[in-house]
Write a structure and sequence with these properties.
alpha+beta; two-stranded antiparallel sheet; 2 domains; 170 residues; 4-stranded antiparallel sheet
């Protein structure tokens, strides 16, 4: 019989071990050769009504155990770990081969310190190029480096009316 697991405010390794114990024991006894690959794709959902609920991240299939660790139900796709479509995914082009808008390059050059550019420059450039740039038509004149303000004001107000509300840091 497994103890009831309640989701804490801060996740610890001890809590993870308890939350995944029924699933891990099941996989180690029924699928030992693939247990680690499968468990990496499974999310703990809840421990309620004397049942442990887990959900597959990719297939969305559920697997359910009772409080004693006995399998209650398992969707056909809940234990999948190999996906044909993953092998067919196109390779991501190296950063050096990507087109980067001149405003993106200029903003990174003018706003990030050398150390930050070395550490985060590629990721920031990709974010500005792929996500933020199209939203604000690559106009970064009001974009500033820093944490979101805690006073409820806006992070960014571009000339095209794009407004992103600040959110509380967790």
């Amino acid at each position: 019989m497994y103890k009831k697991v309640v989701t804490p405010k801060k996740i610890t390794q001890q809590w993870l071990d308890r939350a995944f114990a029924p699933l891990r024991n099941y996989l180690n006894s029924h699928h030992p050769e693939h247990a680690e690959r499968i468990i990496g794709l499974i999310m703990f959902m809840a421990n309620q009504d004397d049942r442990f609920f887990y959900k597959h991240r990719v297939t969305k299939g559920y697997i359910v155990f009772d409080q004693a660790g006995q399998l209650v139900s398992c969707d056909e796709s809940a234990l999948e770990y190999e996906f044909d479509w993953m092998s067919e995914m196109p390779a991501i082009r190296p950063f050096e081969e990507r087109f980067i808008h001149p405003n993106v390059s200029g903003w990174v050059r003018d706003n990030l310190r050398k150390k930050d550019t070395e550490t985060y420059g590629e990721e920031v450039s990709i974010f500005l190029q792929e996500l933020w740039g199209p939203t604000v038509n690559y106009d970064f004149t009001n974009l500033a480096v820093g944490c979101p303000p805690r006073n409820g004001s806006h992070l960014y107000e571009g000339s095209f009316g794009a407004v992103v509300e600040s959110c509380a840091l967790i």
